[in-house]
């Protein structure tokens, strides 16, 4: 009976989203209170479920070994679901003020809540087929958010998002079917399900891994399947924050971790050279994302290409197949989520208050929006990886992982990418604080408390995790010890 609680954090957002459309609210304030209470309640429910039993498991539907919908909580699920649930609360309060300037608010918050439930479902999936079902659902519930503005560009971006996402899911499905012929049990098991037994199937297993890597890599914006992500920037900023920080791209990365260490395992990946072939895509992703970011004047587009590069860092940590590298990869999953959501929140605040989209128009905005731009600056420095920031901690582990793997090329690539990151983020800070805008207003133009509070709070978390990284590092180490 206790195991039924694992369903609640997944189903509850769906139920509450339905009631959001059934209930009649006297005004927006009451509606916003309802939404805030729903998201906070789901967070409490998620934490309580984990408190009951971290190894809780629930089989929902089993027709055969392939079609087996099953949920389970493990340490990796705890990390991902807590990250998502926490950032969802901040995004909720931010969205309440931001969406006042947009239409169809109720529709936005409906799919906003549905996406939370699906993301928790991805975190709690116990096998590949369950993960695949929620992965497909994620595309469906985020599509209305991508096309929210209903402009011509939004529909083009939405169409591109669907084509890429369903194309990637097709790769995953094909890989699952091929893997089922080799091993009918597709349940996630620490260390992999093949038990190192790959004799005679090396080439097939390599093909299966690459199919799944690229399939899940679509949502993780792995080059050459990355272009949907910058195109999706036509969506409202809270959507961009979710796409780039938690829901979509991190679900792609999370799925790659699951496949690499809970299906194949480090030993099998080494034997079939899966890490070598996948590293080609990862290195190109890291460098191309950084180079493309430099050339964009549009702030959200620049941050989008930055995301592509930073996701490459995380995946690089996954495929280096040693403890330090994997610790760095999982740490960067957390740190990048926190940093990037601050950067997008700041971009949204600038657009809301000043209607500025391009960096070249941000001259002197640091004096008009000091709190916003100081938070942006702290997050930027963290993303570059300057000590003592949380970005430095995760990149330090990644560099150690590269040295442990005897791949001096990887630390060099990380340093080059860090330099490129500084070249596309530091000029924004210089433009905001050191270039004069003769027509700028002296009065404070920072956004209202509902937008500013999440920005300041997450920035504080970013700073604290740089000074006290062991809060997360120790838990990540417990995850990694079981996998390598």
From TrEMBL:
<comment type="similarity">
    <text>Belongs to the CPA3 antiporters (TC 2.A.63) subunit A family.</text>
</comment>
<feature type="domain" description="NADH-Ubiquinone oxidoreductase (complex I) chain 5 N-terminal">
    <location>
        <begin position="67"/>
        <end position="109"/>
    </location>
</feature>
<keyword id="KW-0472">Membrane</keyword>
<feature type="transmembrane region" description="Helical">
    <location>
        <begin position="276"/>
        <end position="294"/>
    </location>
</feature>
<keyword id="KW-0812">Transmembrane</keyword>
<keyword id="KW-1133">Transmembrane helix</keyword>
<feature type="transmembrane region" description="Helical">
    <location>
        <begin position="204"/>
        <end position="229"/>
    </location>
</feature>
<feature type="transmembrane region" description="Helical">
    <location>
        <begin position="161"/>
        <end position="182"/>
    </location>
</feature>
<dbReference type="InterPro" id="IPR050616">
    <property type="entry name" value="CPA3_Na-H_Antiporter_A"/>
</dbReference>
<dbReference type="InterPro" id="IPR003918">
    <property type="entry name" value="NADH_UbQ_OxRdtase"/>
</dbReference>
<feature type="transmembrane region" description="Helical">
    <location>
        <begin position="333"/>
        <end position="351"/>
    </location>
</feature>
<dbReference type="InterPro" id="IPR001516">
    <property type="entry name" value="Proton_antipo_N"/>
</dbReference>
<feature type="transmembrane region" description="Helical">
    <location>
        <begin position="408"/>
        <end position="430"/>
    </location>
</feature>
<feature type="transmembrane region" description="Helical">
    <location>
        <begin position="241"/>
        <end position="264"/>
    </location>
</feature>
<feature type="transmembrane region" description="Helical">
    <location>
        <begin position="6"/>
        <end position="25"/>
    </location>
</feature>
<feature type="domain" description="NADH:quinone oxidoreductase/Mrp antiporter transmembrane">
    <location>
        <begin position="125"/>
        <end position="421"/>
    </location>
</feature>
<feature type="transmembrane region" description="Helical">
    <location>
        <begin position="76"/>
        <end position="96"/>
    </location>
</feature>
<dbReference type="InterPro" id="IPR001750">
    <property type="entry name" value="ND/Mrp_TM"/>
</dbReference>
<feature type="transmembrane region" description="Helical">
    <location>
        <begin position="108"/>
        <end position="125"/>
    </location>
</feature>
<feature type="transmembrane region" description="Helical">
    <location>
        <begin position="32"/>
        <end position="51"/>
    </location>
</feature>
<feature type="transmembrane region" description="Helical">
    <location>
        <begin position="371"/>
        <end position="388"/>
    </location>
</feature>
<dbReference type="Pfam" id="PF00361">
    <property type="entry name" value="Proton_antipo_M"/>
</dbReference>
<protein>
    <submittedName>
        <fullName>Proton-conducting transporter membrane subunit</fullName>
    </submittedName>
</protein>
<dbReference type="Pfam" id="PF00662">
    <property type="entry name" value="Proton_antipo_N"/>
</dbReference>
<feature type="transmembrane region" description="Helical">
    <location>
        <begin position="451"/>
        <end position="473"/>
    </location>
</feature>
């Amino acid at each position: 009976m206790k195991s039924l609680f694992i369903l609640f954090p997944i189903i509850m957002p769906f139920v509450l989203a339905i009631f959001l459309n059934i209930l009649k609210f006297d005004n927006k304030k009451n509606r916003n209170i309802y939404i805030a209470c729903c998201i906070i309640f789901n967070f409490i429910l998620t934490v309580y479920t984990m408190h009951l039993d971290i190894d809780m498991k629930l089989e929902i539907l089993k027709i055969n070994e392939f079609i087996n919908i099953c949920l389970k909580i493990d340490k990796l699920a705890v990390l991902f679901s807590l990250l998502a649930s926490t950032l969802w609360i901040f995004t909720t309060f931010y969205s309440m003020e931001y969406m006042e300037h947009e239409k169809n608010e109720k529709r936005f918050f409906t799919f906003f809540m549905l996406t939370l439930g699906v993301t928790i479902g991805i975190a709690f999936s116990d096998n590949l087929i369950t993960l695949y079902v929620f992965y497909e659902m994620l595309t469906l519930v985020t599509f209305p958010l991508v096309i929210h503005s209903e402009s011509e560009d939004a529909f083009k971006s939405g169409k591109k998002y669907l084509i890429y996402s369903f194309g990637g899911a097709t790769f995953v499905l094909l890989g699952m079917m091929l893997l089922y012929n080799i091993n009918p049990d597709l349940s996630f098991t620490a260390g992999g399900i093949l038990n190192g037994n790959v004799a005679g199937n090396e080439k097939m297993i390599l093909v299966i891994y690459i199919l799944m890597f690229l399939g899940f890599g679509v949502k993780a914006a792995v080059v050459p399947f990355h272009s949907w992500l910058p195109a999706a920037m036509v969506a409202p900023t809270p959507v961009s924050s979710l796409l780039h920080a938690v829901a979509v791209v991190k679900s792609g990365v999370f799925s790659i971790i699951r496949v690499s260490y809970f299906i194949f395992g480090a030993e099998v990946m080494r034997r079939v050279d899966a890490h070598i072939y996948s590293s080609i895509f990862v290195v190109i992703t890291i460098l191309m994302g950084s180079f493309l970011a430099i050339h964009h004047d549009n702030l959200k587009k620049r941050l989008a290409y930055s995301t592509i590069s930073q996701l490459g860092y995380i995946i690089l940590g996954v495929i280096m197949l040693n403890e330090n590298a994997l610790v760095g990869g999982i740490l960067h999953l957390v740190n990048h989520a926190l940093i990037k959501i601050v950067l997008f929140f700041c971009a949204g605040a600038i657009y809301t208050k000043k209607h500025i989209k391009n960096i070249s128009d941000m001259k002197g905005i640091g004096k008009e929006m000091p709190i916003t731009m100081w938070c942006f600056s702290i997050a930027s420095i963290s993303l570059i990886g300057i000590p003592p920031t949380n970005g430095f901690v995760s990149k330090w582990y990644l560099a150690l992982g590269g040295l442990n793997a005897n791949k001096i090329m990887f630390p060099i690539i990380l340093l080059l990418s860090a330099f490129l990151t500084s070249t596309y983020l530091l000029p924004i800070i210089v433009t905001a604080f050191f270039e004069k805008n003769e027509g700028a207003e002296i009065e404070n133009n920072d956004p209202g408390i509902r937008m500013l509070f999440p920005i300041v709070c997450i920035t504080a978390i970013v700073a604290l995790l740089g000074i006290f990284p062991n809060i997360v590092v120790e838990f990540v180490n417990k995850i990694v010890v079981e996998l390598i």
